[in-house]
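FIELD: query
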Amino acid sequence: MITSATVRNRSAILSQPARCDEWLYPVTQDEVVHEHGTVTLKCTVQENDNSSLQWSNPAQQTLYFDGKKALRDSRIQLVQYSPHELTISISNMTLNDEGIYTCSIFTMPVLTATARVQVL
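FIELD: result
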């Protein structure tokens, strides 16, 4: 017998993402930095099938693509790159640098995580 509770429970199960895919998603965190300080942005994935990792700034300009610098800005440096991690630093932060930074892994579909950077 199908009851309204059964339908609600089944809908909840079907609407949740498959737990086996969680290892595909990039993980990062919000950061707070003082003006003229340096922020470190770390993006990790548990598993990677040779997909590329990328960091973008709030204007959606690519900062780093895998281990390759994409934006000519001497303040941006590569800290760590592997198939499971892309970590960069940005020095001499200003209020103009504040915003949402995006880490992407170029799987199909592209998966993203965001880090809100606040400059004090």
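FIELD: remark
The first helix runs from residue 4 to 15.
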